[in-house]
Amino acid sequence: MLVIGGTFEIDPARREAFTAAAIDVMAATRAEDGCETYVMSADLEDPSRIHLFERWTSQEALSEHLQSAHIANFRAAAAGIFVSSSVLKYVIASEGPI
User: Fold this and answer.
1) What is the distance between the alpha carbons of residues 41 and 68, in angstroms, rounded to a whole number?
2) What is the DSSP annotation of the chain?
3) What's the distance, Cα to Cα, between the start and end of the chain in Å?
4) Could you tell me the pLDDT band of residue 27, with boundaries at 50, 70 and 90?
5) Cα-Cα-Cα-Cα dihedral of 61, 84, 8, 62, to 10°?
6) What pLDDT does residue 47 have?
7) Domains in the chain, start-ordered, CATH in brackets?
8) Under a CB-based contact definition with an 8 Å cutoff, are residues 42 and 50 in contact?
9) Model confidence at 97, in pLDDT bands (50, 70, 90)?
10) pLDDT digits (tens, 9 = 90+) for 2-21
11) Cβ(33)–Cβ(61) under 8 Å?
12) Which of the listed residues 2, 13, 59, 86 has the most CB atoms within 10 Å of its CB?
């Protein structure tokens, strides 16, 4: 399993445009084979910060996702909104309750 986690810093004045693009890409991504979780969520304290959390069954599924038309559309829509990002991939050997 792969977990993707990170944050985006966005222009808070353009948060509504980002939210619209994020809702579209979340819906399309959640329908993809191999996607177990895909969510972007707003930080409760910082209007310029968005959190990203994804779970994928395989690298192949993630690679196909990254080449999809809806990701290209999202990147184009968010191009002028992103200030910076920090996103990392984690390869998970096992998981279980806390």
Assistant:
1) 21
2) -EEEEEEEEE-GGGHHHHHHHHHHHHHHHHTSTTEEEEEEEE-SS-TTEEEEEEEES-HHHHHHHHTSHHHHHHHHHHTTTEEEEEEEEEE-S-----
3) 18
4) very high
5) 0
6) 94
7) 2-91 (3.30.70.100)
8) yes
9) very high
10) 999 999 999 999 999 999 99
11) yes
12) 2
Two tokens, residue 6: 């990170």
| HSE (side-chain half, CA atoms, 13 Å) at 44 | 0
The tokens for 69 are 């038309």
Contact 32, 61 (CB under 8 A): yes
Of all residues in the chain, what percent carry a pLDDT higher than 70?
100
User: Alpha carbon 60 to chain centroid distance?
Assistant: 17
Q: At 9, phi and psi to the nearest 5?
A: -100, 125
Could you identify the residue written with the tokens 């690298």?
A: 59
pLDDT at 74: 95
The backbone torsions φ and ψ at residue 2, rounded to the nearest 5 degrees and listed phi first, read -115, 140
